[in-house]
From TrEMBL:
A Pfam family matched in the record: Glycos_transf_2
Membrane-crossing segments per the record: 231-252
Protein's name in the database: Glycosyltransferase 2-like domain-containing protein
Lineage: Bacteria, Pseudomonadati, Pseudomonadota, Alphaproteobacteria, Acetobacterales
Keyword Transmembrane in record: yes
Residues in Glycosyltransferase 2-like domain copies: 4-98
Top-level taxon of the source organism: Bacteria
Amino acid sequence: MFFSLIVPTLGRVEELRSLLLSLTQQSLKTFEVIIVDQNEDDRLLPVVKEFSDRLSILHLRSPIRKCNHARNLGASRAGGDILTFPDDDCIYTKDILKTVNHTFSCVRSPEFITGSVITHEGQTGRSGRWQTEETVIDPHTVWTCLIEFNFFIRRNAFNAVGGFDETLGPGTPFGSAEGQDLALRLLKKGFAGLYLPTLRIIHPDKPVSLNIARAYSYGAGMGRVMRSNHLAPGIVLMFLLRPIAGGILYLLKGNIPFFRYYVMTFLGRVRGYLSVCAGMATDASPTA
């Protein structure tokens, strides 16, 4: 199978260079790299030139600084059977594409495959809660089986649901859960998804201070996706109660930064959930 790796990028040079270097070391070579450059300047040209003799690279420019717009733009130019969307600060371990290719080649293979995250030190990443066993993805498990940069989709399935929702994700007030939204729409169309816990991509954990700053926006994304995809009340309630419990726990421990993180996550999820009713497509900022 032929893979299209679509990389939205903004403001990162050395990180992108590290990703491209890791791609030159892939055991499976049948892929192209589509870089969707959202920078206003030409900072990436030396990096593209450096790898142009080792990788098949298409360098696109986009003045629109929305990650999902960049992903959809790259997908519209992709020639691969399989689409995937690495972050510009990821590192691919050498057998990632080989493993995915084997799984897609099996009888009754799924239409999309996801995996988990490790840090540069080889530890499980803090980017989410992860299932420990191979798991069929459904509206409940999608929240613990999926992150956007480790998400491989057959191109026909991606096109069938219209790609990523451009009102979600980085660059919008609803800063997360765009991958879950895409997966839920795929499931509604009858496409199957499979999570492989051993399919790990390296991605750095973000500082706690940055996580706190993003907590409201990321919570708003999750709340909006839960409501727009009509998830069962039990699932919604569980994800509303979790940050309340986390906030109480860290308040009792005297850990104020983590307390603030869980409070902002809860408020964001509520605001995002209610935004579907209120028609708030662009404003999800805290009012307090």
